[in-house]
């Protein structure tokens, strides 16, 4: 049964919070201040005042361009939050994006968004305005306004001049651009109705109490950080405590200290965040931590590993962490955010299955005489209908069979911005038996006893000799095989030899130490080939050992395997050592002399 909506729009939720508890902190942002964290607080009344000021500025500065979206370019601070809500208050479509404060891929991505969305205005801080205005002019975007907001802005608008806009449920509230590795950006159109439905689904699934305190380090322009950790607390009149991703990566214990200091009840992270805490938080740093306030700790946005969950719970159980607080979940921007999650009062589910059967798209009980795989349940769907469908025949599959995950419900977005054909193909899918109106996720998974198990991505599947292999399984096996291999620092993909039309498996793996003896590198490369031959029956893989930091990830922590394939073929990886099969070596465009292919002895 769909939940009754508490509010129609996010603006309604914030304004209600202002009426009921104007002085309650809506946000607390923790700035890096040397080794310490310095808090900056924003009450509901001040948040509302600043949002009305931004809205008034927008309404007066862009009278003729109200249909064009507004691009937000801010560091991850409270200024972003007020600008984002200011767009809602103005009835404008917002686009959260990373500040292009460095050349390269981030700048290219933001430029792609600018063009794709036909942006009418850019909001930023005063100190970035001149540089961004110059960038817009150089890009030929002279008709795009560049406005500065924040306390230091020279031009500020009177918040009392704000007039509430007429907003329809079907109006696009914001565009969520994919953080994936494709060069062509796609903007997911999230309507006000979608946002309200998913916020209510999250509230019901997490049993979020009124006045909840949530805390996170996730990027504010990413769906999990924005919708789950920033807007959900506002939906229930609570408080969101935040820090930057960089602050967390530098010192992972800061996330746990935040939970302790502010009695955080709900948090979220991709799998690698929990793994980072398990490995890098010292006994001294965790000695006085009390994590007993934590009711919900979501784990999503990349494959959830059972080993990581067990290790995290085991490491911090002595600090009051309850096992049932760890909640694997599944979601994506095209469903606004949440699709499924586990029960709030029960430990997560794990399912150990026969590896050979999984390669044939079936979940069967593990056998003692064969290899197995452990899958983590991502809970039951929440206010969204889920089907498992054969991606080729479009036949709906029964329980226990792996296929493409299809979704239908109020949270499913209205499509991709200015992409009618792609929207029709992806958001209007029809099953073989005529069931219509489903969104095709491109993700693979299975339902078993109503629990959803997500197994991988269709486009990243390795099809070898009639077997379906998952890249994350190979990556994990390599990283667990020796201390030299960096956890979370691997990417497995295939490259195709056009002459034979054969797909060759390539393993790119970071090493922990930047300097390793040449003889050790040769031995490590050979050990990876031997391991994969033995464990996955793949005798002819190519191995590339690279420096730490070479593996690219999205803002949500997903390995960008498509991008890594491109960098490999372009010869752009910081290679320490490689053992390439001859057909693979022939595909690589080396910046200098082509690498000498290694001959694998079998």
UniProtKB/TrEMBL annotation:
One record GO biological process: Actinobacterium-type cell wall biogenesis
Q: GO terms for CC?
A: plasma membrane
Q: Which UniProt keywords apply?
A: Fatty acid metabolism, Ligase, Lipid metabolism
Q: Give the residue spans that cross the bilayer.
A: none
InterPro entries cross-referenced by the UniProt entry: AMP-bd_C, AMP-bd_C_sf, AMP-binding_CS, AMP-dep_synth/lig_dom, ANL_N_sf, FAAL/FAAC
Question: What residue stretches are annotated with the AMP-dependent synthetase/ligase domain?
Answer: 17-417
Does the keyword Ligase feature in the UniProt annotation?
yes
Family, according to the entry, reads as follows: Belongs to the ATP-dependent AMP-binding enzyme family.
Name of protein: AMP-binding domain-containing protein
Q: Which organism is it from?
A: Streptomyces davaonensis (strain DSM 101723 / JCM 4913 / KCC S-0913 / 768)
What are the top taxonomic ranks of the organism? Bacteria, Bacillati, Actinomycetota, Actinomycetes, Kitasatosporales
């Amino acid at each position: 049964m769909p939940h009754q909506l508490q509010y129609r729009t996010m603006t309604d939720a914030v304004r209600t919070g202002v009426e009921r508890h104007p002085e309650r902190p809506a946000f607390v942002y923790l700035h890096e201040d040397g080794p310490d964290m310095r808090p900056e607080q924003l009450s509901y009344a001040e948040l509302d005042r600043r949002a009305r000021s931004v809205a008034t500025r927008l309404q007066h500065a862009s009278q003729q361009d109200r249909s064009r979206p507004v691009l937000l370019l801010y560091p991850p601070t409270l200024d972003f939050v007020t600008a984002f809500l200011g767009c809602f208050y103005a009835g404008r479509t917002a686009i959260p994006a990373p500040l292009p404060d460095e050349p390269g891929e981030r700048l290219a991505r933001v430029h792609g968004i600018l063009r794709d969305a036909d942006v009418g205005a850019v909001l930023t801080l005063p100190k970035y305005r001149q540089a961004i205005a110059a960038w817009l002019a150089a890009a030929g975007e002279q008709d795009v306004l560049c406005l500065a907001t924040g306390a230091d802005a020279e031009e500020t608008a009177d918040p009392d001049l704000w007039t509430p806009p007429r907003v329809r449920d079907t109006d696009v509230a914001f565009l969520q651009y994919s953080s994936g590795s494709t060069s062509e950006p796609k903007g997911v159109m999230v309507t006000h109705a979608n946002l309200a439905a998913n916020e209510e689904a999250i509230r019901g699934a997490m049993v979020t109490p009124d006045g909840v305190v949530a805390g996170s380090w996730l990027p504010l322009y990413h769906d999990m950080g924005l919708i789950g950790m920033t807007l959900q607390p506002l939906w229930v009149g609570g408080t969101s405590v935040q820090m930057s991703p960089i602050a967390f990566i530098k010192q992972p214990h800061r996330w746990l200290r935040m939970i302790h200091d502010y009695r955080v009840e709900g948090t979220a992270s991709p799998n690698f965040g929990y793994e980072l805490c398990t490995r890098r938080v010292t006994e001294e740093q965790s000695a006085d931590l009390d994590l007993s306030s934590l009711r919900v700790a979501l784990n999503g946005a990349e494959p959830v590993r059972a080993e990581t969950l067990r290790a995290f719970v085991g490491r911090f159980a002595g600090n009051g962490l309850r096992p049932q607080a760890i909640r694997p979940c599944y979601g994506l921007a095209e469903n606004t955010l949440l699709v499924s999650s586990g029960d709030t009062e029960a430990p997560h589910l794990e399912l150990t299955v026969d590896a050979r059967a999984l390669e044939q798209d079936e979940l069967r009980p593990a056998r003692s005489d064969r290899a197995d795989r452990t899958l983590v349940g991502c809970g039951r769907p929440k206010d969204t209908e889920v089907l498992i469908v054969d991606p080729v025949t479009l036949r709906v599959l029964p329980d226990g069979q792996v296929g493409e995950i299809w979704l239908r419900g109020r949270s499913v977005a209205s499509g991709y911005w200015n992409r009618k054909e792609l929207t029709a193909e992806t958001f209007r899918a029809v099953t073989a038996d005529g069931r219509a109106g489903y969104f095709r996720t491109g993700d693979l998974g299975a339902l078993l006893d109503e629990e959803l198990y997500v197994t991988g991505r269709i486009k990243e599947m390795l099809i070898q000799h009639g077997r379906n292999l998952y890249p994350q399984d190979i990556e994990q096996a390599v990283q667990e095989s020796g201390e030299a291999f960096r956890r979370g620092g691997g990417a497995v993909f295939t490259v195709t030899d056009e002459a034979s039309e054969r797909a060759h498996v390539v393993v790119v793996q970071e090493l922990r130490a930047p300097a390793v003896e040449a003889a050790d590198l040769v031995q490590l490369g050979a050990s990876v080939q031997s391991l994969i031959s033995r464990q996955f029956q793949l005798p002819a893989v190519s191995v590339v050992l690279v420096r730490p930091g070479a593996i690219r990830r999205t803002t949500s922590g997903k390995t960008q395997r498509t991008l890594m394939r491109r960098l490999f073929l372009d010869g752009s990886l910081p290679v320490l050592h490689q053992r390439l099969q001859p057909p693979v070596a022939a595909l690589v465009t080396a910046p200098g002399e082509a690498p000498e292919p290694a001959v694998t002895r079998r």
